[in-house]
Fold this sequence. Notes:
Structural class of chain A: mainly alpha
Number of helices of chain A: 11
Helix content of chain B: 25-40%
CATH superfamily of the largest domain in chain B: P-loop containing nucleotide triphosphate hydrolases
CATH topology of the largest domain in chain B: Rossmann fold
Largest interface: A-B, 26 and 33 residues
Strand content of chain A: under 5%
Oligomer: heterodimer
CATH class of the largest domain in chain B: Alpha Beta
Number of domains of chain A: 1
Strand order of the largest sheet of chain B: 6-7-8-3-9-10
Radius of gyration of chain A: 20 Å
CATH architecture of the largest domain in chain B: 3-Layer(aba) Sandwich
Amino acid sequence: xxxxxxxxxxxxxxxxxxxxxxxxxxxxxxxxxxxxxxxxxxxxxxxxxxxxxxxxxxxxxxxxxxxxxxxxxxxxxxxxxxxxxxxxxxxxxxxxxxxxxxxxxxxxxxxxxxxxxxxxxxxxxxxxxxxxxxxxxxxxxxxxxxxxxxxxxxxxxxxxxxxxxxxxxxxxxxxxxxxxxxxxxxxxxxxxxxxxxxxxxxxxxxxxxxxxxxxxxxxxxxxxxxxxxxxxxxxxxxxxxxxxxxxxxxxxxxxxx
Amino acid sequence: xxxxxxxxxxxxxxxxxxxxxxxxxxxxxxxxxxxxxxxxxxxxxxxxxxxxxxxxxxxxxxxxxxxxxxxxxxxxxxxxxxxxxxxxxxxxxxxxxxxxxxxxxxxxxxxxxxxxxxxxxxxxxxxxxxxxxxxxxxxxxxxxxxxxxxxxxxxxxxxxxxxxxxxxxxxxxxxxxxxxxxxxxxxxxxxxxxxxxxxxxxxxxxxxxxxxxxxxxxxxxxxxxxxxxxxxxxxxxxxxxxxxxxxxxxxxxxxxxxxxxxxxxxxxxxxxxxxxxxxxxxxxxxxxxxxxxxxxxxxxxxxxxxxxxxxxxxxxxxxxxxxxxxxx
Lengths: 257, 328
């Protein structure tokens, strides 16, 4: 356990020692801020319109349903673009600079290294999500949103991010070149995102399959405030599978030399 | 301390290491010598548990590196060819991290980091970033990270590569100092280094062990006979014939010829001093004797003759008598 923590700490430190953490968090804050402002603007306009039409006023519009949910839905897009930057160097950089030799010749198991890297990336992702709490805090100051669906939404975001991270780690473990790792990760994320579109074009049977496979679709219920074990299990098994693939890739690299 | 038995490593169809066996006793420094691509690094990587061998067995500090990798790694310090540093970390941060993953208890960690920094003389660099260090300091930081958990076995892949002469001497001294408490394997291209630091040498070529012996025995065993170098100003005449007639001389080869001065390599029966007779033969013929010196086979020659195609068969009896083991 202390080994995993040591690696995770090192990972997190190296994110912040290089420009990566600042660029990712900066872009994240900027884009998220824009989404927040845009959706808030739309929300305020709508509630004023409803007021004018003699309806009951802003209270009749649900902050959770009409503001927070679409807002956090947009986070998915941010993850799609920014997460490859977080994971792309995880393994490829170690391979390129030879530091992987230090890790693999230390008394650590492969799994400790992989979990350490996973938790390091999750910690950075946690910092990114923490930034979004600032905006939500504003909503709590000026309104009365429900906090429970927000909690489930964040659980969902954490799990979904974990899926992307475990997949990104795997792709990073395949190459020495972090640019290649980043681009392939982005392409795969994009594919996983649009997989439902392909499915819906192919017919109702295929749609069911692709909907189940889509990482993004499983988030819907979390966003609505529903904790469904189906999605929970889906995410956890996806993460486990990603980490398992990473372990296999590191191991096979060893045999091939 | 280290036992390697019939180690073979194949990458696809390429055999990098073929049936390598050797032993290293406790406290010994073993030099690992071979041209580029001979399989030195591969062997070292197998010993450190970085990669598994295709066949064979390696036991480090009493633990099989395949069956009990964690235990073996706990007792091994490894300095790869390029020191595995994280450029964004400061030296002390880096060493602290390495201490953590090598399993140094947190109470001792600070003391260990200070100790190895003192040992490798990098205390002044403690707060510098690893990425900003010069090659020499990087190498020393790498060495101190290999030492941090006070391992029984140290495996150093070309520890002096890229250092300046002063640093090379310092590093060699350090390695010699370490030999008492640690068992050391070091690989190198630099032959005098082996002669100066190592008690035994393994010469490896094309993945196979060519010779295992002490540096002195290796040079002695390949010498076989005594050879003299002789430079003669013969004024146009050819002294080879008269040199051959000197009693005890077995062979005369012309080595070089410049402005009428001819250099010869003269082999003689071992144990017989032919210098007086040679000098007499030259001078009595009225030629000028410009130079005469014994030729000793350097480790370089041994190395070249063992690792190039036209291998002169060494005298295995002489080597065996000297207590060495020859694997051919």
